[in-house]
Amino acid sequence: MHMLRVLLTSCLLFGAAAARADEVVLYGAGSLRAVLSDIVQDFSRKSGIKVRTDFGPSGLMREKIEQGDKVDILASADMASPVKLQKDGLASAVVMFTRNRLCAFALPEARLSGANFAERLLDPAVKLGTSTPKADPGGDYTWAMFQLIDKRNPGAFVKLEAKAKKIVGGSAAPIQAGEDPIADAFKSGQINVMMGYCSGAAQRKAATPKLDVVEVPEAYETGPEYGLALARTDNAAAVALMLAILSPQGQATFGRYGFAPVGLPTRP
Questions:
Q1: Overall average pLDDT of the 127-136 stretch
Q2: How many domains does the chain have?
C-alpha cells in the first residue's frame, strides 16, 4: 500500500498534462504480448500517452535493460527479474501484478493426463519441449517442477533435464515475426509434449489443433508469479500506465486472457 501511495502522489505532483507529452517504453514477457497490447491500446486511447512496446523472454528483456536499453517498465513473467533490477539500482519500484499456471500441451499419442502426469513425462516415448531456464521464466518454472517430481520419483530430475528440448527462450536464435517454433517442433516430430503457460492454450491449440491441454497437478505446481519493475517513480506517464495495469479494469483484462488477476475486488 505504501508503494501505491507513492505512485499516486507522483501522478498528482507531475500532472496529466506533462504525462501526455511523454512516450512510455514498456518491455514485456512474450506471454504478455496479447493482453498488454490490449491494455496499452486502451490506455493510450484514453490518456493520449504513446507507449512503445517490445516483447520476449523475460530474462533476455532484463538483460537488455542491464546492457543500457532505456525502459520505463519491465513486465516480467517472474518476480526475480524485477527484484534484480531494483537491487541493482535500475528500478525504483516492484510489484506483482498477475499469476498464471503451468500446463502441458500434448499430442494424443503422448497419452498424458493429470493422473499419469509424472509417469508419462518420464516415459522415453514422450518427447518433451520446454523454454530455456534463466533466459525465460517458463523454463525456470518447469525445472522447479522437475525438482518436485524428483521428490516423489528419485532420479526423475536427471532424466527430465536430459530429455528436455529447449524450444524457445534461447538467445542464439531470436524468434522473427510470424514464426512459431513450438508449432514447428510439433509438426516436425521433435516433440509431442510442450510445457508452457496455461494462458497460452488458445494460441497453442489454434496452431496445433489436436493438442490436449493438461494442467500441472497441484503436487507439482510451481507458480508462476508476474512482476512489474518501474524505472522511476517521478515519471508520471509510466506511473499512470502501471496504475492502469494494476487497476480493476486492467486486472479484469488479464482474467479474460486466461491469467489469474491479483487485484480484483471480491464483489463488484
A1: 96
A2: 2
Element (H, E) at 210: none
Kindly state the average pLDDT of the residues 6-21: 44
Classify residue 266: in a domain, yes or no. no
Annotate 100-133 with b (16+ C-beta within 10 A) or e (fewer): bbbbbbbbeebebeeeebbebbbeeebbbbbbbb
C-alpha to C-alpha distance for 135 and 200, rounded to whole angstroms:
19
Could you tell me the residue range of the domain that residue 11 belongs to? 2-100+224-261
Distance CA 90, CA 231 (A): 6
pLDDT at residue 172 in the model: 46
Sheet bearing 260-261, strands edge to edge: 50-56, 23-29, 73-76, 225-230, 93-99, 260-261
**Is residue 222 within 8 Å of 78, Cβ to Cβ?**
no
Q: What is the pTM of this model?
A: 0.86
